[in-house]
Amino acid sequence: MGDRTVTRADLAEAVFRKIGLSRTESAELVESILEEICATIARGEAVKISSFGSFLVREKNERVGRNPKTGEEVPISPRRVTVFKPSNVMKDRILAAHGIVPDGEDVSALKAAE
After folding, report:
1. Strand partners of residue 76
2. pLDDT digit string (tens) for 45-95?
3. Nearest to 31 by CA among 4, 11, 1
4. Which helix (H) or strand (E) holds 107?
5. Could you read off the pLDDT of 14-33 as tens digits, one per residue?
6. Residue 78: Cβ-neighbour burial (10 angstroms; 0-12, 13-18, 19+)
7. Alpha carbon distance 79, 60 (integer Å)
8. Could you tell me the CA-to-CA distances from 32 to 24, 37, 97 in Å, in that order?
9. Confidence (pTM)
10. 3-class secondary structure for 23-67?
11. Cα separation of 97 and 92, whole Å?
12. pLDDT band, residue 1 (cuts 50/70/90)
């Protein structure tokens, strides 16, 4: 495992290799999916992707923060934020990739499911 970030171009390349669409069609498909996810979240709706996780919009109340340089208290206005909640399948795959057995399950069974 590397510390590399997966980009839109990487996703489009994976679609190109696995599905066989042209590179242009693959890039358009990835862009279309990401745009739909963004638009749905912007409307305040949740996006659930089976075996991956959910993107949720959460309301945060007004609170008091501090300027780290001066220590001065600053009010932070109420806002809506997007949060990601990974599915149990995703959590288990991450744990298995790090050699950690999730809740007594067999790691080999998880790797076979991949």
Report:
1. 63
2. 999 999 999 999 999 999 999 999 999 999 999 999 999 999 999 999 999
3. 11
4. helix 107-113
5. 999 999 899 999 999 999 99
6. exposed
7. 5
8. 12, 9, 30
9. 0.71
10. HHHHHHHHHHHHHHHHHHHHCCCCEEECCCEEEEEEEECCEEEEC
11. 9
12. very low
Which residue reads 């997966």 in tokens? 6
- Rg from Cα positions in the chain: 19
Let me know: does 99 contact 107? Beta carbons within 8 Å: yes
What is the token pair recorded at 69? 């340089």
- Residue 47's identity, in one-letter code, is V
What type of residue is 64? V
